[in-house]
Amino acid sequence: MISGTRPLRRWYWVHKWSSIVCTVFMLMLCITGLPLIFHHEIDHLLHEEVDASVVPPGTPKADLDVAVKNALDKFPGQAPHFLIWDRDEPNALLISIGTSITSNPVNNRFARVDAHTGAFLDSPDVTGRFTYIMLKLHTDMFAGLPGKLFLGLMGILFCVAVISGIVVYAPSMRKLRFGAYRKDRPRIVRWLDVHNLAGILLVMWTLVVGFTGVINTWADLVLKAWQYGQLAEMTAQYHGREIPTRLTPVQQAVDVAVKAVPGMIPSFVAYPGSIFSSKSHYAVFMRGDTPVTSRLLKPALIDAETGQLTDSRDMPWYVSALFLSQPLHFGDYGGMPLKIIWAILDVITIVILWTGLYLWLRRRKPARVALAEAARRPVEGQVLTS
Amino acid sequence: MTTLQTPPARARRQTLAQIFTWPLVVGVLSTVGLIAALVGDGIWDGVSWLTLLLPILLYGLFLLRPRR
């Protein structure tokens, strides 16, 4: 169409092929991602939940050991892996329970416990939920780590398509004003304008959401790197030990951590032997209280036998990068208005993908063939009616 | 597909700078918006909403405005 110079043709080639390969998967990701923006609201709407008691501010929290015991009473013989303070539901605690401490935490059940009374609330099986199915499709297509890494690769191609799209935007706008939409022209021209305009307006958002999505596909690897790096280093002197038979109360471990890391509040506790701690420690992950610092976790390792602090360090940059990339991908860091904006931008991205697919399919067919077909059609019609 | 270069939207040939002025403005504001809500709450959220709403409003405006 545009008789560009050779480097420009190469950019067209890059834009075309990076898009073709990733478009079907990106469409799937945009469609499954849309309800995930509102997963909390959807779960709340579709599923019954036992509400935690609403209490005046300043009401003391329940003893954590009581809370954990109440949860475990419903799962006899099983083991707590994590104790989580849900930032979206401050009146409840989540306890992630596995069949044993060595079982795969992917299969854990969550028990909800009242944060103030310590009473067991419920432990819904989320695996049949609409939002769970969307989440699995969105993160790994039910294919585990290979599925994640594959989608990450598609995300990289998407970023390449966005960047090459900026380059090929220039020649098609040489004779057009910014924002031109030729609404009286044939569909292929109109959709080209719809594609170009949306693509260039959303460049930063699609790049950021695309690339932070890619980073999220590496989460498992990043956390593995942390375990074998910083965590192993911090717990080197405990290497080879087994999980203590009698554990320090988890409440005491949290109290020690809160004292050791002033100005931060606990986000979650990993039990000794779970994937986020050593066999000899409670890892109490502390967070700040601004939008940024609430994402950056700082673990305090508490000796599970003595209840003493072993070490507390900031997490390495690659873990911080992962944590910071999460809000930028989910859009959950600026209240409901930001979520709605996220959803609209997601829908416009679907428009970009769809029009791009259409433009490619139309252009595959050379104009002459299309003309010849059009010329033949009335003749065929006559044959059929005669 | 020479039809792409005929009026009414025809304008004189633009330079790269002219083509990318507005996209650059929108891109910079989007970046500000993406970061603002991370920095703080309250006013920072507001900055984020307005700057990220801009590309959506522009898109609607350009597609829906009457023919000139």
Estimate the strand proportion of chain A: 5-15%
Which of globular, elongated, flat, extended, rod-shaped describes the shape of chain A?
elongated
User: Which residues of chain B form runs of ≥5 with pLDDT under 50?
Assistant: 1-9
Going across the biggest sheet of chain A, name each strand in turn: 4-3-2-1-5-6-7-8
Classify the helix fraction of chain B into a percent range.
Answer: 55-70%
Helix content of chain A: 40-55%
Q: What would the principal axes of the Cα set say about the shape of chain B?
A: flat
Q: Helix-strand pattern of chain B, N to C?
A: HH
- Helix and strand composition category of chain B: mainly alpha
Major beta sheet of chain A, specifics? 8 strands, antiparallel
* Uncertain runs of chain A: 378-386
Count interface residues per chain for the largest interface.
A-B, 48 and 41 residues
Distance between the first and last residues' Cα of chain A = 40 Å
The gyration radius over C-alpha positions of chain A equals: 27 Å
Task: Give me the oligomer status.
Answer: heterodimer
Average of per-residue pLDDT values of chain A: 92
Query: Please, how many helices of chain B?
Result: 2
Q: Provide the β-strand percentage band of chain B.
A: under 5%
Task: Characterise this structure.
The complex is a heterodimer of chains A (386) and B (68). Chain A is of the alpha+beta class and 386 residues long. Chain A has a domain at 84-129 and 219-330. Chain A has twelve helices and eight strands. Chain A has helices at residues 6-37, 39-46, 64-72, 130-139, 144-172, 187-201, 203-217, 219-234, 250-260, 317-330, 335-364, 367-385, and strands at residues 79-85, 92-98, 109-114, 120-122, 265-270, 281-287, 298-303, 309-312. Chain A has an eight-stranded antiparallel β-sheet. In chain A, helix 1 packs antiparallel against helix 4 (130-139). The longest helix of chain A is centred in the N-terminal third of the chain and has 32 residues, at 6-37. Mean pLDDT of chain B is 85; it is low at 1-9. Chain B has helices spanning 16-39, 43-64. In chain B, 68% of the residues lie in helices and 0% in strands. The longest helix of chain B is centred in the middle third of the chain and has 24 residues, at 16-39. Chain B has two helices and no strands. By secondary structure, chain B is mostly helical. The interface between A and B is large, with 48 and 41 residues.
